[in-house]
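Here is the promised in-class demo. Please do not try to memorize the tokens; focus on the logic of going from shape to residues.
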């Protein structure tokens, strides 16, 4: 990964008073965080980029976890909107490379900085999104994919993103709407497409919409129904594989209906000095259930 690097002697985040796990500074105020000290004491060795596979392995993986083309498209758009030389992009929840955002890691015109609540080869430090240990207006763009459902206070987390973004800085976020609990006790919140826009109300909208629709949502439900009835997670995954074609139904659903039944939604926007009003939030609803 290109970007800034930390060592014990030259960490730009003044981390000398913080614990370290191998080469990663742990920049967490444990008294104010749900993150435990023991939870971040072991580094996770993950390859910098998902290894290439071939044959049946690639085919099966594509059925279980297809390419997120919405993220791929929006990341390309975001990068095209960035100004200046070597813009700094912060990846929140970057312990693993997100589906569809791999292009960030191959774009040598960018500087990448990433953190998560655990250490991995993709990150430069360990931190809590509620308290991002970076200076005001210090990054040019933020990518936060499938993270905000796992924070206790997503509004505080987004306020922190707003704080560390430079003027007119960009944010790209993907967050679940209709998905079952994942990550156990560390799963707290879901957002409708309108609620997600309100979460990012202090940002000027570039685009927003659906990442995955009701077909994908149904596939999630079948998977979790099977694993709940038979108490076997692996059996749910087998049914997900057998019924992979359900996600193809997403393409048959008009956008307004997809908004109301989405598995996940996205927002792409610019930092602003002004917030949308509650009336604007209501008027911005794009679903199929308008009530006069």
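The designed amino acids, position by position:
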């Amino acid at each position: 990964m290109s970007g800034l690097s930390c060592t014990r002697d030259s960490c730009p985040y003044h981390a000398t008073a913080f614990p370290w796990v191998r080469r990663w500074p742990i920049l967490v105020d444990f008294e104010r965080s749900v993150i435990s000290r023991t939870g971040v004491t072991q580094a996770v060795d993950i390859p910098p980029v998902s290894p290439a596979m071939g044959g049946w392995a690639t085919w099966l993986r594509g059925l279980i976890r297809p390419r997120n083309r919405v993220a791929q498209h929006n990341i390309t758009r975001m990068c095209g909107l960035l100004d200046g030389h070597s813009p700094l992009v912060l990846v929140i929840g970057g312990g693993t490379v997100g589906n569809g955002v791999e292009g960030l890691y191959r774009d040598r015109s960018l500087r990448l900085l990433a953190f998560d609540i655990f250490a991995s080869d993709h990150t430069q430090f360990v931190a809590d999104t509620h308290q991002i240990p970076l200076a005001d207006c210090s990054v040019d763009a933020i990518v936060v994919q499938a993270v905000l459902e796992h924070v206790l206070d997503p509004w505080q987390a987004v306020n922190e993103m707003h704080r560390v973004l430079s003027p007119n800085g960009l944010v790209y976020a993907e967050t679940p709407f209709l998905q079952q609990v994942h990550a156990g006790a560390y799963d707290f919140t879901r957002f409708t497409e309108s609620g997600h826009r309100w979460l990012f109300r202090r940002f000027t909208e570039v685009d927003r919409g659906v990442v995955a629709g009701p077909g994908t949502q149904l596939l999630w439900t079948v998977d979790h129904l099977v694993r709940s009835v038979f108490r076997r997670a692996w059996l749910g995954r087998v049914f997900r594989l057998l019924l992979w074609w359900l996600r193809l139904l997403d393409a048959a659903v008009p956008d307004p209906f997809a908004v109301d039944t989405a598995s996940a939604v996205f927002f792409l926007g610019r930092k602003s000095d002004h917030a949308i009003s509650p009336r604007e939030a209501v008027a911005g609803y794009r679903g199929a259930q308008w009530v006069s």
